[in-house]
Each structure stands twice: as structure tokens, then as C-alpha cells.
Amino acid sequence: MGTVEAANKQTIGKTLDQKKPKVVFVLGGPGSGKGTQCANIVEHFGYTHLSAGDLLRAEIKSGSENGTMIQSMIKEGKIVPSEVTIKLLEKAILENENDKFLIDGFPRNEENRAAFEAVTGIVPEFVLFFDCPEEEMEKRLLGRNQGREDDNIDTIRKRFKVFLDSSLPVIEYYNSKGKVRKINAAKPVGEVFEAVKALFTPVEDKAAA
Fold it and tell me: Residues 107, 25: contact at Cβ < 8 Å?
């Protein structure tokens, strides 16, 4: 059994190795506006946007054995193992003809990060971190849920806490490697994208040169 798994891993590894995809991790708290900015990057710079959450939801919807397992873990409040999410990300990268990917909302914690690099051998080009004050994110999220402010405030604060506790160590790790590109996400959408564009344009120019 171990040898089959090892062989599978080798095959995927080789294929990813041949493909040499360019990966940018996109991190930011709930309400930081990263979804909007990812859509802009896709449109202007031709990246493919992969959301770890969307991939897990799609797998659940597919009704596969894997999907059923993911669903029951989420229902029980358990964290889906890194390997499961990484396999879905690998599959999405290999099945797509593009070689430039934005991976949104992953790695969620240090264990995710270490497992992704160990399994795929991919080190991100850089990490795009949408830094936004908690009060601003709170205001945006409450603005989306008119009339339900009191219901949601506790949930929103819990989400912030989870993000701070789990994702900040990942950002600190990549910062120590000089790979974090921090964007002030409290500004209006257009201004935020101007700052994002400045990060992606040199990368594209170098590739074209």
C-alpha cells in the first residue's frame, strides 16, 4: 500500500516538477477584500484563481467518497487534513492549462504550509497579504448582513481570532524569507488594486523580457 502511495506521489511530483507552476498565496482576514482583488488579478494578469474553500465545497457536492469524508469532518467541527486540501489543489493545478495560480485562503496554518511545500515541492513566488484593521473588516462584513448585526458580531470576532491565531504565524514565516508583500487593504478598492498592480507588473515584465 505504501509503495502505491509513494508511486502516486512520485507521479504527481514529477508532473508538477515538469509543469513548474508559478504560485502566489493570497492571505487576509474575513472582509479584507481579497476575493475582489483576486478577480482583478485574474482579469489583468491572466492568473487562475484557486480557492481552497471552493475546492472542498465542490468535492463535497460531487458526492465522491472523498467528498463525503470531508463533509462529515466539517459537520463534526474537525479540521480537514492538509493532505486532502493539498491533493485537491494539486489536481486543480495539473488539470488547468495555465501555469500561474493564485491560491486563496491557504495555507491556513503552519502545518498546511509545511505540508504543501513538502508534498508539492512548490515554494510560492510571494505571499500577497491584505492587511486590514479589524474594525474596518467588521464594518464591511456587517454591511453585507443588514439587519443581522447582533447575530453576527460574535461569529465575526471568532473568525478574526481564528485568522490571527492560525494565519499570522504563516505570514511571519514567509516574512522571514522576504516573501511577504503587504497591501493596505483599508483603502478603497481601486487604490488597493493600484498597489496590487505594482507588485504583479514587474513579475510580468521580467517574464516577457
Answer: yes
Mean residue pLDDT across the chain: 84
Amino acid 155 reads: T
- Dihedral (CA of 93, 98, 26, 158) sign: negative
The pLDDT value given to residue 61:
94
Q: Which amino acid is at 99?
A: D
Beta bridge partners of 183: 130
- Alpha carbon distance 29, 15 (integer Å): 33
| pLDDT for 46 | 94
Q: Which residue from 100, 128, 108 is spatially nearest to 26, judged by alpha carbons?
A: 128
Sign of the four-CA dihedral 83, 89, 93, 94 = positive
What's the predicted TM-score (pTM) here?
0.81
Please answer whether residues 86 and 120 qualify as being in contact, where contact means their C-beta atoms are separated by less than 8 angstroms. yes
What is the rounded CA–CA span in Å between residue 99 and residue 22?
A: 6
The residues pairing with 24 across neighbouring beta strands, listed in sequence order, are 102, 126
User: Burial level of 105, CB count in 10 A (0-12/13-18/19+)?
Assistant: buried
Categorize the per-residue pLDDT at 205 as very low, low, confident or very high, splitting at 50, 70 and 90: low
Helix axes 52-62, 82-95, angle to 10 degrees: 90
Q: Which one-letter amino acid corresponds to residue 16?
A: L
pLDDT(121) > 80: yes
Q: What are phi and psi of 73, to 5 degrees?
A: -65, -45
DSSP label of 28:
E
